[in-house]
Amino acid sequence: MEDRNGSTGEGRGLVLVVEDEHAIADLERLYLSRAGYGVHVERDGGAALARVRQLRPVAIVLDVGLPGVDGIEVCRRLREGGDWTPVIFVTARDDEVDRVLGLELGADDYLTKPFSPRELVARVKSLQRRASGPPSARVLAVGGVQLDLDRRTAEAAGHPVPLTAMEFDLLAHLMSEPGRVFSREQLLSAVWGQADYGGGRTVDVHVAQLRAKLGAASPVRTTRGVGYSASADPGQGRP
After folding, report:
1. What average pLDDT does the chain have?
2. Contact, 15 vs 59, CB < 8 A?
3. With left for phi above 0 and alpha for psi between -120 and 50, is residue 237 left, alpha or beta?
4. Residue 41 clears pLDDT 90, i.e. is over it
5. Are the CB atoms for 67 and 96 separated by under 8 Å?
6. Is 87 helix (H, G, I), strand (E, B) or coil?
7. I need a surface site. Which of 117, 200, 215, 238 has the fewest CB within 10 A?
8. Burial of 107 (0-12, 13-18, 19+ CB in 10 A)
9. What is the pLDDT of residues 60-70, one digit of tens each?
10. DSSP symbol at 143
11. C-alpha angle 54/81/70, rounded to 5°?
12. Is residue 237 pLDDT above 50, yes or no?
């Protein structure tokens, strides 16, 4: 059955689009629907929060500049409530401060208007692939941190740690080759799939978020002037 604000949730799953500009919302819905996604559209943040709990979307395309409860606050409330549905921020402002704030709040990706609707679809597909995980169970462990790549779960010092899709993928990439130092450019290419994704600051923000969440158990080390690695040895690089 088709929702009055969108299309069916069959196929790849349902995407919640939160956008108050009708033309942009219609374009996003059109391209996502063509790609096999169900789409539900909300125009304000308060209604979107209620719909997330009701619809359980596979991803949220979230405009930052919403009336009332804006996109930043929507993401903040979701993460504080333990909801880690992948979020792609959409904004009319190409400002690093806004981008960094969004990533720090737990957003997984970021698009600046105007953007190609095909690019939006590609980003949603990429996040969904990451969230679904690999077909076979594998576990990575470095020091006191353990990642279950099949279940997409993380533990630090025996306690579960909620990670965004990007945070999980970044940590998994580092932990897949313990001791190897990856440059920011290598991480941008391997984890984000782009040669230049907002500059190295994007990687730095995600590393800072990982360290904050993992606490003293964090295996992420910094090699000044080179990049980052994962190591149980605190003597390799600096925390």
Report:
1. 83
2. yes
3. left
4. yes
5. no
6. strand
7. 238
8. buried
9. 999 988 888 99
10. T
11. 80
12. yes
| Angstrom distance (rounded) from CA 64 to CA 173 | 29
Using CA atoms, how far residue 159 sits from 80, 166, 170, 219, in Å, is 17, 20, 19, 15
What whole-number distance in Å separates Cα of residue 38 and Cα of residue 51? 14
How does DSSP assign 194-237, residue by residue?
A: -S-SS-THHHHHHHHHHHHHHGGG--EEEETTTEEEE-S-TTSS
Tokens of 13: 């799953």
Above 70 in pLDDT, residue 33? Answer: yes
Q: What percent of the chain has pLDDT over 70?
A: 82
Does the predicted model carry a pTM greater than 0.85?
Answer: no
DSSP-based three-state secondary structure for 64? coil
How sure is the predictor about 234, in pLDDT bands with cuts at 50, 70 and 90?
Answer: low
